Amino acid sequence: MQHAEITGWGKCLPPAVLSNDDLTTFMDTTDEWITSRTGIKERRICHCNFSDMAIVAAKRALAAADLDPAELDLILLGSLTNDSYCPNTASIVQDAIGATNAASIDINSACTGFLYGLHIGTNLIRTGAHKKVLVLGGEFISHYMNWSLRDVAVLFGDACGAVVIESSDQEVGLLAAKIGCDADAKYAIQITNLGSAYSRLSEEFLYIGWNFDGREVFKRAVKCMSLACADVLDQLGLSVDDISLVVPHQANKRILDALARRVGIAEEKVFVNVHKYGNTSAGTIPVALTEALEEDRIKPGDHVLFATFGAGLTWGAGIVRWGDRVNPLKQSDAELPPNDKTALEILEPHIKRYTARG
Ligand code: UT7
User: Whole-model pTM?
Assistant: First the structure.
């Protein structure tokens, strides 16, 4: 039986930083409220297209794997904030990185897009249908934000991450996964006025709104992620003591603390970077995984536990057994287009548009 080893990893964070204090310049909020309720101190704001971030993350992951992009046979890109509906963003990435032999699919399951993609890609490698797959997750959520909604706007940021998975005889990679969806709560996170259901019926089309039941999402996130974690541990006959590191979806530090308590794992084993980037939706896990490797938090043979949830309400968990290599084979010099604006300057037209209407 073939497995799908993670052989490359990369991240792309846009350089413009939006701090909690920046938010207080146009919104009725405080650093104290955001920090105490979420743990978030700052987030990044993208100055270019989403695909630019995805292309940089992809090139960095390919360099880490030292893989010729022409050898990729599939690209799976998790995001809900694509450049365009048509063409899909995975195709834009395929063309830009020269992955001429890769089928290219966008996956929209919101924040869970990366783990959903890793699960699908891994199982396509297991069947022998594919051999070398690029899995991305990321978001340009600042562009789809309604900047008059303080209960949502403070939570999110922009980023993209990517991994390369390759067919391997070794029993490594994503060895167990459990994904699901609590669709009865699908309207607990809802972006309105975007999509044909709205364009058919509303003159408000593209005046984006968010319906967001934070407390309900919080409760479901902890419950669904902890059940999914128990499921994947059970699948492999492992206990929490066998897990070296948890790399969870980064939405709220309080959710991560509650998850650690429910799963029974020490907080020190939970990787946290939500204070730096906020919730980057499908980007959180591949970005956190890349940082965990950069910080030597993963050793050969380690079991790494992923846990995720998001709009839908989709959820999941997975256990990766790491292979022999924890260092990139090569470095890429790929960078985003230059930016000379502050985060507030980039956001100015959006903030004006939304705060003018309230
Ligand atoms: O990837 C999936 C995405 N979603 C999530 O992960 C969200 C999960 N939920 C959460 O993280 C939390 O529920 C929140 C951070 C969204 C909210 O935390 P909370 O402790 O559940 O706060 P709350 O909803 O109970 O709100 C309490 C108060 C309200 O005021 P009143 O009615 O008690 O006077 C809000 O109006 O906080 C107020 N509030 C704010 N105040 C200052 C809401 N947003 C803000 C804000 N600044 N930005």
Answer: 0.97
